């Protein structure tokens, strides 16, 4: 996904001289190296200095530029949090804060490199938009949006590398702020976002093997959430399942429950999230998710798939 | 391109008259509100005045190719009264300072006329100024970014991140000032943090051109900037007195924040008017 982001950003930068990328000592993978080599004046490496990364982006945006701040998610959002809040959100500047390797993708680096609460934290900030593409194809669409939008700051939550595409044959196109049906069914609806979409697709296959008709929905825009779309999904399906790689507070799961309560939804609603606990074990990304119960077989047992 | 060397003189009398006028206006406003960081505004009055009236270039329509960002946002009263004097802010704006129907508060808010960035939380301004200077360079304009930091703000780690980047990027269009009144909430910086000094050596070690002047000597401030070598960012350390201009405020930390009582107001007004009369004679 990071390579797709880099390619999309490079493409946008070829036609817009106001696009800058400000990175914090992170290796310029893929097309990022091409960006650096071709537009050295617009590729700024602040070093290990994330507060200035955000502040410099704010200054660029105050002069009308369209900057991206780019590093590992915990360092792009948590370390410079007050700069994100005051410089970007309070001033409502069109800066994209890219959180690379979000969630618990850095599965061998320990809890210091995890972002289990980033949606809740970024979502609490007025003016902040949050986008979490589920695959490289959505990442391309999201990056193109970020490169041209003037609404305000965006937290762009990305995976890392090697994610497959799920949306090549999606029912809906990618539209900022709208739920996107990857497949549309009538019985069960699975709402998810980000790279954990792979588990949503696997769960859907299990339901389908049992003869049930399944919708899989990419909730790529977490803020502003498509409340009408969620309400519609709750109304049209008898069983709605939320799967997210995020703490139980402040993410898609509690928002969906809130909308279900507000609209007196009558469907069954199951939510699966990371636990409200740090992860101290190591292994693969899947190993860490499984440690918090985010494993397809375990979920399938609970939801009858 | 704008003529960056058009000024080769400094009108000391005019600067002194303006600064007295600004201090009086701030003192008047102090009677409307409980608090307005009057000591902090008085300590950087001459520096901000010199930036607006002698350093920033003006187009015929009054706009400037240059930008001023008040990094020490708590000193914004001097910014407000200068913008009022220039007609950028209205008298009503200042009359409604910190009031329910007003738009100006104790810290500058981006979006208000003449306010280029929201500041107040310390340690943010210099990074934003670096970004602005980069944008000007990227567009191949000759716009200069001016900013004023408090000395307490120099303690922020984020300030040093920006100091490192500004010189590493060779931003010769960035000119920063430190309002070095040596006071912060818990006392004199030279006593609480003796190794804070020397400042000049620190900035020079980070690759900046650096000058140290009497921050209340506007002509010296002007000369430090107009006589710079260039080719890298410039830091002007202005040695100042907190609360400068009113005897009971000078170097008394409580005037960081509080407003004068009616009796104190009358005394302050007399002192400023006496200073104005002395300057005119």
Number of strands of chain B: 7
The proportion of strand residues of chain B reads: 5-15%
Q: What is the approximate shape of chain A? A: globular
The largest contact between protein chains, plus residue counts on each side, is: A-B, 30 and 29 residues
The second-level CATH architecture of chain B is: 3-Layer(aba) Sandwich
Which sequence of SSEs, written as H and E, runs from N to C of chain B? HHHEHHHEHEEEHHEHEH
- The low-confidence runs of chain B, each spanning 5 or more residues with pLDDT under 50, are 1-6
Largest sheet of chain B: 5 strands, parallel
Low-confidence stretches of chain A: none
Fill in the CATH topology of the largest domain in chain A.
Rossmann fold
Largest sheet of chain A: 7 strands, mixed
Could you name the CATH homologous superfamily of the largest domain in chain A?
A: Thiamin diphosphate (ThDP)-binding fold, Pyr/PP domains
Q: Return the CATH class of the largest domain in chain A.
A: Alpha Beta
How far apart lie the N and C ends of chain B?
41 Å
Query: Would you list the SSEs of chain A in sequence order as H and E?
Result: HEHEHEHHEHEHEEEHEEHEHEHH
Count of domains of chain A: 2
Overall radius of gyration of chain B = 18 Å
> Helicity of chain A, in percent?
25-40%
- Tally of distinct domains of chain B: 1
Provide the β-strand percentage band of chain A. Answer: 15-25%
Write the layout of secondary structure elements.
The complex is a heterodimer of chains A (305) and B (281).
Chain A: H1 2-15, E1 19-23, H2 31-38, E2 43-45, H3 50-62, E3 66-72, H4 73-78, H5 81-90, E4 96-100, H6 118-123, E5 129-131, H7 136-148, E6 154-157, E7 180-183, E8 188-192, H8 197-209, E9 214-218, E10 221-223, H9 227-236, E11 239-243, H10 252-262, E12 268-272, H11 285-291, H12 296-303
Chain B: H1 12-29, H2 38-43, H3 45-55, E1 67-69, H4 76-85, H5 91-95, H6 125-138, E2 145-150, H7 157-168, E3 174-180, E4 183-184, E5 187-188, H8 189-192, H9 199-205, E6 209-214, H10 218-226, E7 234-239, H11 262-280
Parallel strand pairs in B: 1-2, 2-3, 3-7, 6-7
Antiparallel strand pairs in B: 4-5
